[in-house]
Design a protein that fits this description.
globular, two-stranded antiparallel ribbon, mainly alpha, 2 strands, about 200 residues
């Protein structure tokens, strides 16, 4: 492909990425920072004093993963083949597919953190509601998804960082899943009983 033609396709693809990112950011800002949003929350709390404010954490994580996916495409477009470049520049679905995967991976990583499969100083910690004992209720389940929030400001920053990384690096979450799967497989092998030893032996005189 001629250099000039490739530059035209690069500019076309970059324009699509800018439009998608701008629209996404505008939707997030309109959703979270418009007076209508806060008025609706206040009205709901006033009408139902027992109602709990929603954290919308899953939506925030998904949106951050989407942004990571868009940045990842922007970083890679200069290294894609001519065929891939032509496809991406002519197809909106091709441009959107990778960021959507990034958003999904960000949610999966978020679930991994919530389940404490991965823990440590590098990973976020969360405040969650206490489930009723001995039998949790449906309300416990709803409250868990509605009110779960990071424990502190640094934990919030870690959550956003890892959500962005999940969207930016498409291999990050699959590698984590494979490592967890390998750990479980190795543990199952260790728990298996030893094979029985045959009592019959062959003696040769």
């Amino acid at each position: 492909m001629e250099t000039l033609n490739r530059q035209v396709l690069l500019l076309k693809l970059t324009r699509k990425l800018v439009i998608c990112t701008a629209v996404l950011l505008a939707i997030i800002l309109m959703f979270f920072f418009t007076p209508a949003f806060f008025d609706a929350e206040s009205s709901a709390a006033a009408s139902d004093p027992g109602a709990q404010e929603r954290s919308f954490l899953t939506l925030i994580v998904f949106g951050t993963g989407l942004i990571g996916g868009f940045v990842s495409i922007q970083q890679r477009i200069h290294r894609v083949t001519d065929g891939e470049l032509k496809h991406l520049s002519e197809s909106w679905s091709g441009v959107l597919l990778i960021p959507i995967y990034g958003g999904i991976f960000a949610i999966v990583l978020h679930v991994i953190f919530l389940s404490e499969i991965l823990t440590g100083e590098l990973f976020p910690r969360y405040w969650t509601n206490t489930f009723a004992k001995p039998t949790p209720t449906i309300e416990d389940f709803k409250t868990f998804f509605i009110t779960t929030v990071p424990m502190s400001g640094p934990d919030t920053a870690k959550m956003l960082f890892w959500a962005f990384c999940a969207g930016f690096s498409e291999r990050l979450v699959p590698q984590i899943i494979q490592k967890v799967q390998s750990r479980v497989t190795d543990s199952d092998k260790q728990d298996l009983p030893a094979p029985p030893v045959s009592d019959s032996t062959e003696h040769r005189g």
